[in-house]
Design goal:
The complex is a heterodimer of chains A (202) and B (189). Chain A has 202 residues and is an alpha+beta fold. In chain A, 31% of the residues lie in helices and 37% in strands. Chain B has eight helices and no strands. Classes of the chains: A alpha+beta (202), B mainly alpha (189).
């Protein structure tokens, strides 16, 4: 006499720990002799693990509302950039001396840091050092491989305010003085806008 | 008839955002909110700090939308950006211990295995989003370690207590099928 197939409901009850010990043992034994059920059991266990944590991954309603609203404030500048045909590219953070290194356990100093950003159009090296009582100096060098003028803005992340502006020297060096905070560098070379950030100072 | 934002692919959503479409932005945030929010919480940040990370990531995303014109890898980009932002916020918190600060010394930055796991969970999330509301609500409650009693669950979801087990089985089977379909689409796409 053939046994009735193992249902998803039975497998779910086993995963949820709702069966008595004898029931669970009998079902586990049946699963061992049913390749299809064994496959389904593995898949359902994976789904149950995911589902058990999913509710905690939901952002609170207030946070969702703020994230939805954030777009309206930034939209005008965003559309302007797109309409003007500006090519906007992101320079990825390649190195931050303050970042924890899994291999070496190194820590950078809070009073000075080196960062490197890179993209197909440029390499940007930055050094952050304390300047005066509460200020900070950002010394940078940008290598574009071109002779075009390079205009640089330091923009505060939270409100998109430009806190410092300069033009790189012919050798690519530049200096910006800034307060503490989270910023990004906007580097304009002709119709290309390179965005490097976030840069956290200190 | 055009697609609604929820039906759009990631590249279509990004294009619509660049056209100034608020609905597209809302759909993009909704699609990836759980992915982004789960990263700081998995790393042990409290609710306040996790919300800081969450907000910062969306601000960064808006700024970089123009550079995401080939956003096939949007999930991967969001994972890296959120991990980096988590590290940054955690670092600042570790200098100023206070509410919401836990053990942040173990924050994994750009851990490839963790990134792979997060991408896999986002894939499952995409299938979960295709389930009907009742199944989704039931499944996200019934497997939690601190799940409510079946009596409470039955009341909350307006289903008879005795139906919870069979309904759970049917919903789980639907989800398993959706995940399998998604796998097939990925392979053929």
């Amino acid at each position: 006499m053939s046994q009735s197939p193992i249902t998803t409901e039975q497998l779910a009850a086993l995963i949820a720990g709702e069966l008595s010990e004898p029931e669970a043992a009998a079902l586990r034994l049946s699963i061992q002799h049913d390749a299809d059920a064994a496959d389904r059991f593995v898949q359902l266990e994976q789904l149950a693990r995911f589902l058990s944590e999913e509710r905690d991954a939901q952002a609170p309603a207030d946070a969702m509302r703020r994230a939805h609203k954030a777009f309206a404030a930034s939209r005008p500048g965003l559309i302007e950039t797109v309409r003007n045909g500006v090519r906007r590219i992101v320079a990825a953070l390649e190195f931050d001396s303050r970042m924890p290194s899994a291999a070496l356990g190194l820590r950078g100093s809070a009073q000075a840091a080196q960062l490197t950003f890179s993209c197909e159009d440029a390499e940007i090296d930055l050094e952050i050092v304390a300047e005066g009582a509460e200020g900070w100096r950002l010394r940078g060098q940008i290598d574009t491989g071109l002779e075009d003028s390079v205009a640089i803005d330091l923009v505060r992340t939270e409100d998109e305010t430009t806190v410092a502006h300069t033009t790189a020297r012919t050798d690519g060096e530049f200096i910006l003085d800034t307060p503490a905070g989270s910023f990004s560098l906007r580097i304009r070379i002709g119709k290309t806008l390179i965005d490097a950030g976030p840069i956290v100072i200190p | 008839m055009g697609k609604t934002p929820n039906e759009m692919t990631d590249p279509q959503l990004v294009e619509a955002c660049l056209d100034g479409d608020d609905g597209a932005w809302t759909a993009l945030v909704d699609r990836y909110a759980a992915l982004v929010y789960s990263i700081p919480t998995r790393q042990g940040l409290g609710e306040d700090l996790s919300q800081d990370v969450f907000q910062n990531v969306w601000t960064i995303t808006i700024r970089y939308l123009g550079a995401l014109r080939d956003p096939q890898g949007l999930a991967a980009w969001l994972i890296t950006t959120t991990q980096r932002e988590t590290w940054r916020v955690a670092r600042r918190a570790s200098q100023q211990p206070g509410p919401g600060y836990e053990d942040l010394s173990e924050v994994a930055w750009a851990d490839p295995a963790e990134a792979e796991l997060l991408e896999e969970r986002q894939r499952l999330r995409r299938s979960l989003a295709r389930l009907d509301d009742r199944c989704r609500a039931l499944l996200t409650e019934v497997f939690r370690e601190d799940r409510p009693s079946y009596d409470l669950l039955a009341e909350r979801l307006s289903i008879p207590r005795g139906s919870i087990g069979p309904t759970r089985g049917r919903c789980l089977e639907k989800l398993r099928t959706l995940v399998a379909e998604d796998d097939t689409n990925q392979l053929s796409g």
